[in-house]
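Try it yourself: sequence plus zinc ion, in.
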Amino acid sequence: MNLQNNTCLTAEIDRIAEVAGYLWHRGWAERNGGNISVNVTALMSEEERSMPPLCAPVPLPEAMTMLGGQVFYVTGTGCRMRYVSQEPFSHGSLIRIAEDGNSYVIIAEKPVAPTSELPSHLLMHNYLLEKGRKNRVVLHTHPTDLIGLTHCQPFLDSDKLTRTLWSMIPECRIIVPRGIGIVPYEIPGSMALARATVRQLAEHDVVFWEKHGILATGEDLIECFDAIDTLSKSAQIYFSARMAGYEPEGMTAGQLDDLVPAFGLEKFQ
Ligand code: 13P
Ligand code: ZN
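Structure, out:
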């Protein structure tokens, strides 16, 4: 089946390629650092979703009961973002979750094995669908400045980290309205990391993995990139001030609170 004829899917894959290029150019994607998953089920016909598998079913570590029959584009394990940006279907694949949620198969276009962080991605998608949230994208990347903050104990506090980054520029409060969740260090790719991440999603759309990287979930991949990019800008302002020898003043609590009604934002805690 020629998926090139599906213009909606092709546009989405083009967007993934575009963002993969940004991740590389921003210096957030050393070697194979980072991974992307996008739920593309609604963009495909039933016939496309039923394409024959390119591999035997691969068991999932636990049943993803909400994901039966859903199709995801997922970047490949060991694949470099700079090459995902050039050839997304040679460095990623479409996977279909079995109806019982216990396994997946690769259905297109090549048998590229999905990211080692698939447990976190799928558990997040499973949770988001269960809660009826429209988020269908998960982006994980390794921004130098944001990871740097997680090496500093006082910033491993969600409230402190959120308020510090929010207070550097008004846009941060507006673009990351639900603040930042923090997951203490866990082994990359593990179910422990996946479970701890999902626990943060009740209150946040962006989660920091201590000494590892950042995750953002949203309705749109560009939106996820923008959230991380804005946090990175705030971190750079913070570090620039510290390097110039002063503690940045930051916006006041009152100034931050005034943004809530002005932009129709959610309150934080
Ligand atoms: P993958 O190459 O398996 O996607 O791993 C990259 C990564 O960032 C792990 O956290
Ligand atoms: Zn990573």
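One thing you can check immediately is this: The pocket of 1,3-dihydroxyacetonephosphate (ligand 1) is lined by residues 32-35, 77-78, 115-117, 188 (CB under 6 Å).
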